[in-house]
Amino acid sequence: MRVILLGPPGAGKGTQAQRLTQKLGIPQVSTGDILRAAVAAGTPLGREAKATMDQGALVPDSVVIGIIRERLAAPDCARGYILDGFPRTAAQAEALGEMLQALGTPLTAVLSLTVDPEELVRRLGGRRTCGSCGAAYHLETAPPRRAGLCDRCGGGLLQRDDDREETIRKRLAVYREQTAPLVAYYRGRGLLREVDGRGDIDAIFTRICRLLGAEG
Ligand code: AP5
Q1: Whole-model pTM?
Q2: Is 160 contained in some domain?
Q3: Is residue 60 a part of any domain in this protein?
Q4: How many Cβ atoms from other residues are within 10 Å of residue 22's Cβ?
Q5: Cβ–Cβ under 8 Å, residues 135 and 128
Q6: Assuming Cys at both sites, which of 1, 127, 168, 192 could form a disulfide with 186, CB separation 3.0 to 4.6 Å?
Q7: pLDDT (tens digit, 9 = 90+) per residue, 98-118?
């Protein structure tokens, strides 16, 4: 199964991708996670991307397309994957389409998660992420059992540098301008499935599984 999770910052792409990964046994491919890992490791890619990410802008298409080309060729992607945060521009969507056509591996579906803008700001402001395993939490709606520590691995929970309110607003504007047009792009190709991203995380996951025919 090859699925794109599309949606604004805070829509729950990462949260739902992690669940799908566990249920379907295929990897979550998150360009944001790959870039943050490069920043943390201080690689040339990370040094180049950090300032752009901290401003809430998009890393150049050529950079992320290269990352995805390499990642999708890895053996663990052979049975499928969940794309989280890619594509984000028309050029990225076109490049992905060409890659998949060359591989003979068409997309299964593009799931578009919709959430009200004020709810997005609230979610991102309260988000905390495990610095060790990447598990996502929210201070109010999905708190860890022990404050500041991951339930899964005991790692310390961190706030992302781009989750400050001013940067959140910038990321939302970038989404509206550059990524939202992909909803129409994939609708025109008959791949788009709208998912109500409001409400309980488990209820949203159930909706997604139903759309993918992966209940039970
Ligand atoms: P990226 O890491 O992809 O961030 P994003 O798209 O802004 O998405 P988020 O991770 O913020 O949100 P999400 O939808 O995954 O929500 P989550 O599940 O975490 O990108 C970061 C940066 O990297 C970009 O700004 C750019 O610079 C660069 N980049 C990445 N990809 C790129 C690309 N393709 N091209 C160019 N540049 C790229 O949930 C958020 C919070 O809400 C959590 O706390 C969670 O617990 C909570 N939550 C989730 N669901 C619910 C719910 N139903 N109810 C209540 N709370 C919930």
Answers
A1: 0.94
A2: yes
A3: no
A4: 9
A5: no
A6: 192
A7: 999 999 999 999 999 999 999
